[in-house]
Design brief:
Blueprint: H1 2-11, H2 14-79, H3 84-87, H4 90-98, H5 101-106, E1 111-114, E2 120-124, H6 139-145, E3 150-151, E4 155-156, E5 163-172, E6 179-188, H7 194-199
Antiparallel strand pairs: 1-2, 1-6, 3-5, 4-5, 5-6
Length: about 220
Amino acid sequence: MIQKLHSIYNRMSIKAKISIFTLIVFLFGFWTPALYSSRVLRENMQRTLGDQQFSAVSLLASHIDDELNLRMRSLEKTASSIAPAMMANPRALQIFLDNRVVIHSLFDGGAYVVKNDGTVVADAPITAGRAGMNVRDRDWMVDATNGKGSIGRPVIGQKLQVPVFTIAVPIRDAAKGEVIGVLAGVVNLTKNNFIRQVTDVNYGKTGSYILLHLSTNWRS
């Protein structure tokens, strides 16, 4: 095939050869910038799309961070009102917890108070049946008894039997500064809360978001 084309080319006139050469130069000069522009355009589109995705994710992450901060601070404020005498009086502690309207509005899985040995001594709503349950092996319990606010890993709730995660803070003796218990709030992942409002959002027609648990200790 190549020999045949070479033979045809040799039989052409100088004028024909010049015309073909000019056409080749023209096509090369036309397609080279076109291919380069296409590549640059594709890279710019990828960069722009990446920036847009990062902005969207950053906005949602900021929203989640604000919601977690709100719940952590609300627990801390409530825990600061629990005195050592109350920890020794489960009935008084139950009444106190039942009346914490803000806590109930922020934690759709309820809230409960735990002694340092891991025993739940007050639970709201009481119908959750967590009183008497022991949670000393929970990751958030270990952190909170060590004086750190903590966000636990998602698990299946022992009593609720649905996916949940727990936010916990230490309860301290105001006079001595010692940890005397733990206040825990539960977020039910099956309900339409701030987590579901993010994970149920689609990015475009086919995109979605995944929320990963990376750390348990809360930064103070």
